[in-house]
Write a structure and sequence with these properties.
ribosome biogenesis, UTP23_sensor, Rossmann fold, rRNA processing, Fcf1/UTP23, 10% strand, PIN-like_dom_sf, 60% helix, 11 helices, six-stranded mixed beta sheet, alpha/beta
């Protein structure tokens, strides 16, 4: 089972490294619920997480998360002690602290530029994280840390980028310049010019067809004239025969 989990994590890490440029040391934001679950399941986050993710990690929390743990009292005192061991990542809520989940969400806005992982047991927070592309999600299940599979939002983002819909403008310009340098743009333009557009019927072909029909009608008229001439000759011959018999 452990080997299977490692393969699962390696595959998912490969996805984020290749498509969203995640690099070591991996930066992980942790909230109070994750620290509480680690304490309950006797998981050593600092020692176990680097081995699971396959690289060096930096563990962070925020002042808002610590304030929230303080407000919850003795029930989460142990989780607070764990969270205090991590580095504090500055947030924009110095004067007016917000909930831990709201604070972590604010840290991954605008495309997650700092390449944060989010570690939480909060289902509501997890569902909101999945709606953002390129944010890996960590949680604890059955005494084990698990890296969730890429969300549909992340998969859709990658698919669009592969279809060249999200290529930066400077890259598009460099592609055009390379084509011009290699003479490919000129060749493509010549091919476009050579394309024939669909037009109406050729008037000359129509005239030819009419001539053929006229020529085809002429022999039939000549035959009719010949038949009439033969009938006239026969009638005259019959009349002469009758005259000779009467005489």
């Amino acid at each position: 089972m452990k080997l299977k989990r490692q393969k699962h994590a390696k595959r998912n890490m490969g996805f984020y490294k290749h498509n969203f440029h995640f690099r070591e040391p991996f930066q992980v934001l942790l909230d109070g619920t994750f620290c509480q679950a680690a304490l309950r399941n006797k998981i050593q986050i600092r020692e176990q997480l680097p081995g699971y993710l396959g690289g060096a990690t930096q563990l962070f929390t925020t002042r808002c998360v610590l304030k929230e743990l303080e407000s919850l009292g003795k029930a989460l005192y142990g989780a607070k002690l764990i969270a205090q061991r991590f580095k504090l990542r500055s947030c924009s809520h110095h004067k007016d602290p917000v909930s831990g989940s709201a604070c972590l969400l604010s840290m991954i806005e605008e495309g997650n530029p700092h390449h944060f992982f989010v570690a939480t047991q909060d289902q509501e927070l997890a569902s909101k994280v999945k709606k953002k592309a390129g944010v890996p999600l960590l949680f604890i299940i059955q005494n084990t840390m698990v890296l969730d599979k890429p969300s549909p939002k992340s998969l859709a983002f990658v698919q669009k980028s592969q279809m060249n819909e999200l290529v930066p403008e400077h890259q598009k310009q460099s592609i055009v310049q390379l084509k011009e340098k290699e003479g490919l743009a000129k060749q493509e333009g010549e091919k476009r010019r050579k394309r024939k557009r669909a037009g109406g019927p050729n008037p000359l072909s129509c005239l030819k067809k009419k001539k053929k029909t006229q020529e085809g009608q002429e022999p039939s008229e000549k035959k009719k004239r010949r038949k009439r001439k033969r009938n006239r000759v026969k009638a005259e011959a019959m009349q002469s025969v009758q005259k000779s018999e009467e005489e």
